[in-house]
Amino acid sequence: MHVRRPAPTGVHRVSSRKPRLSAGAVYVLLMALAVLFVGPFVWLLLAALKTRDEWAAVPTHILPRQAQWENFTHALTDINFPAYAVNSLFLSTMYAVLVTASSAVVGFGFARLRGSGKRGLFLVLLSTMMLPQILTLLPTYVLFSRLGLVNTYWPWVLWGVASSPYLIFLFRQFFAAIPSELEDAAIIDGCGWGRIFVRIFLPLSRPVLLTSFLLSFVWTWGDYIAPALLLDVDHTTLSVAITAWYRDPHGNAIPTVQAAAAALYVLPALLIFLFAQRYFIRSIVSSGVKG
Amino acid sequence: MARNSWSRYSNRTFYLFVSPWVLGFLLLTAVPLGYAFGVSLTNFDGSSPRWRWVGFRNYVELFGDAEAWHAMLRTIAYAAIAVPLSVAGALGLAVLLNRRLIAVGLWRTIFFLPSVVPVVAMAIMWKLVLNRDAGIANAILHVVGIKPIAWLVDPMAFYALIILTLWGLGGGMVIMLAALQGVPTELEEAAVVDGANRWRVFRHITVPMISPVIFFQVVTGVIATLQIVVQPLLLAETNSISGVGQVPQSTHLYMVQVYQEFFTSNRFGYGSAMLWVYFLVILAFTLLIQRSSRSWVHYQVDTESDR
After folding, report:
1. CATH of region B66-294
2. How many CB atoms lie under 10 A from the CB of residue A124?
3. ipTM value for the complex
4. pLDDT tens digits for A196-224?
5. Superfamily designation of domain A82-246+266-288
6. Nearest C-alpha of chain A: how many angstroms from B197?
7. Considering only alpha carbons, which residue of chain B is nearest residue A131?
């Protein structure tokens, strides 16, 4: 005879499962972690508002006695901050426009067009996403210096026109998901691929275009090694300028002014991110989930 | 006939569209790599025209270069610590945020924000935080009675670098979060009904379901950590490429060593040989992880979208 046994442990299990981590504990944990993640930003701002003595005081002063806003004035005037900001802005915008345009074109090619050897090429593309950029940067630098491209912005033009595997992938995923009825109708009407791309696909891809533009802008804005290698004192970007050039007459770094400069420098990147958070997250997710 | 010319048109159009990348890849990736190989067979010093071929002598020398080997081992140790910690940390944070929370968007922003901070600003911030005398880290440690720690010099600089890396794990967290949200809840609920506890559900259902994403994080993490050079340079006391000599021993990673060969010793040939050896090492690592993935990465469906 089969008697269905009531599961004696069942009730117990349900109750032991529930209080895994109480809501309160989760918030306490998140709060503690948030302090670690936000702390450096806050400390940077506090340092930017202190006098030099106050910054170096032992024991450490957490809050400035009186906010030293002139640190920001010094950050802007001790070096030619506006000129470097213009360099950064120019270089980032130019690269972002070029690389977005070229990556959209290439991404469209991989998503919608047929050609012999396409599969192989796409595999090469995916594996270049895995290629450490730093390996090619040094020999590229040597080549560029022999070609006389050092201290010009031509390298960024070339890098922009050459498109980026990462962004190509982003565009390719987007274009591949668009139903083919649209282009079929256009082909029957006698449209060439160029016009199909410009008239139909490009307008549809506005969010991806924006994502690509913002991402590549922030890359260049934040890049250190390429401008440090390729550009001299007059042409270089903000990222290089703020690292080393705030010095007192004795050659010592002035941490408070450097902190103010760093705050001014990081602000555009953070603003872009906050303004376009969902675009960033979407692009990161689409690159990470498909791999 | 008509079909033939159409396919020729399409073939041509395809190559026209992808030509920016093909040309860019050839000129800005393949040529520099090939050029580096050529240079690695010479004793070129970066400027003087009087270089000559030395064959594989640079490679032979590199094989017996204790400093380079130490730098390589240090880099591998750094990757072996930083990658698992950041992947696990990203997963842990994602699990914490993958539940009903007040202001979940705000939490996500807080943890993600550091990963978009430019490396220069990141280095400046952490130098302020970890400053031996005036930094907040030692001030907090002082409260609990710990003596000031010299974070930015040997041997602690190594750990400072790892802290800096972990601070930027928010990008990985966002990817993990998206993956977790893609796990069908029915599966987990079914396991819970069958009496599995929370941890076992996580270990045997959630993790296998998102293993492709974890795998991707490990691969990109390894590649990213192996090529780190800017962070050690900027965390060091002098921060410029010419000041590469001042990088503390414990953060003197392989790429730092390469930069030193290029810009302090002007040994472009030897440095190029180091680059090529490293290229092969990274390739080997990637293949190794790829091979190991067969045993622990579960792909639900073959997502080969073929157009």
Report:
1. 1.10.3720.10
2. 15
3. 0.86
4. 888 888 888 888 899 899 989 999 999 99
5. MetI-like (1.10.3720.10)
6. 7
7. B223
Task: In whole angstroms, give the CA distance from residue B39 to residue B55.
Answer: 10
* Token pair for A178: 């668009």
Q: Is the pLDDT reported for residue B176 higher than 60? A: yes
Q: Is the Cα torsion angle A149, A153, A159, A163 positive or negative in sign?
A: negative
Q: Where are the domains of chain A?
A: 23-67, 82-246+266-288
Given a contact cutoff of 8 angstroms between Cβ atoms, the answer to whether B24 and B245 are in contact is no
pLDDT of B302 higher than 80: no
- Cα angle B144-B147-B149, degrees, rounded to a multiple of 5: 115
CB crowding A3-26: b at 16 or more within 10 Å, else e: eeeeeeeeeeeeeeeeeeeeeeee
Per-domain residue ranges for chain B? 66-294
CB contact under 8 A, B258 and A138: yes
- Measured in degrees and rounded to the nearest 5, phi and psi for residue B53 equal -70, 135
> Measuring CA to CA, how many Å separate A175 from each of A81, A121, B303?
41, 18, 17
- Tokens 């001014």 locate to A264
Mutate which of A21, A26, A105, A142 to disrupt the B interface (most B C-beta within 10 Å)? A142
Does the pTM exceed 0.95?
A: no
Instruction: State how far the alpha carbon of B299 is from the alpha carbons of A122, A179, B202, B294, in Å.
Output: 21, 26, 17, 10
Confidence (pLDDT) at A95? 97
Q: Is the pLDDT of residue B113 over 60?
A: yes
Q: Strands, DSSP E only, in A110-202?
A: none
Q: What pLDDT is attached to residue A20?
A: 57
Is the pLDDT assigned to residue A291 strictly greater than 50?
no
Mean pLDDT of A126-152: 87
> Which string of DSSP letters, residue by residue, matches B11-78?
HHHHHHHHHHHHHHHIIIIIHHHHHHHHHHTB---SS-S---B-TTHHHHHHHT-HHHHHHHHHHHHH
DSSP state of A247: B
For chain A, what is the mean pLDDT? 84
Predicted confidence at residue B209, as pLDDT, reads 86
- A263 near B275, Cβ under 8 Å? no
Residue in B13, B215, B227 closest to A193 by CB: B13
With cut-offs at 50, 70 and 90, classify the pLDDT of residue B77.
very high
